[in-house]
């Protein structure tokens, strides 16, 4: 099984699991969870967001804290990185991408967080 298609781990009773770009929220405001690279990249591209990291958080020459730089949100404290570097770090850490497509009112949502299912403090 490839890293990109690994199962989402942990207890996720409040989230809907998404495994491909053809799947969508059951209702606006629903929290979604995925590890699929295509789903994550499509979500970011739809919002004009670029893969980024927080400078000074690198470990052994690899990206540190992963973020997205959204246009118009003052990402001066972020450093843009390649999708390859972003996803390599995402996979190596075994992270889950938790996000929303839309807010409850139907407007596009930029909400996301990264979760390490093996750590309580992630």
Write up what this structure looks like.
It is globular and about 40 Å long. 16% of the residues lie in helices and 20% in strands. The longest helix has 10 residues, at 37-46. The strands form two sheets. The chain has a four-stranded mixed beta sheet with strand order 1-2-6-7, with helices on one face. Strands 4-3-5 form a three-stranded antiparallel beta sheet. The mean pLDDT is 86. It contains two helices and seven strands, in the order ββαβββαββ. It is an alpha+beta fold and 122 residues long. The protein has one domain (13-115).
Give the gist of this structure.
By secondary structure, this protein is α+β, with helices and mostly antiparallel strands. Helix content is 16%, strand content 20%. It has one domain (13-115).
Percent range of helical residues: 10-25%
How confident overall, as mean pLDDT? 86
**Largest sheet, strands/sense/barrel:** 4 strands, mixed
Structural class: alpha+beta
Proportion in β-strands: 15-25%
Quick one: overall form?
Answer: globular
Question: Could you give the count of β-strands?
Answer: 7
- Low-confidence segments, given as residue ranges, are none
| Count of the separate structural domains | 1
Listing every helix as H and every strand as E from the N terminus to the C terminus, the arrangement reads EEHEEEHEE
Straight-line N-to-C gap = 25 Å
Query: What strand line-up does the widest sheet have?
Result: 1-2-6-7
């Amino acid at each position: 099984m490839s890293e990109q298609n690994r199962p989402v781990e942990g207890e996720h009773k409040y989230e809907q699991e998404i495994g491909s770009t053809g799947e969508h929220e059951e209702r606006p405001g629903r929290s979604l969870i995925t590890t699929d690279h295509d789903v994550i990249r499509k979500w970011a591209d739809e919002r004009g967001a670029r893969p980024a990291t927080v400078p000074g958080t690198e470990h052994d020459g690899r990206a540190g804290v992963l973020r997205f730089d959204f246009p118009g949100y003052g990402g001066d404290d972020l450093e843009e990185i390649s999708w390859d570097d972003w996803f390599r770090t995402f996979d190596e850490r075994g992270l889950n991408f938790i996000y929303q497509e839309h807010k409850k009112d139907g407007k596009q949502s930029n909400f996301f967080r990264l979760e390490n299912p093996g750590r309580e403090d992630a």
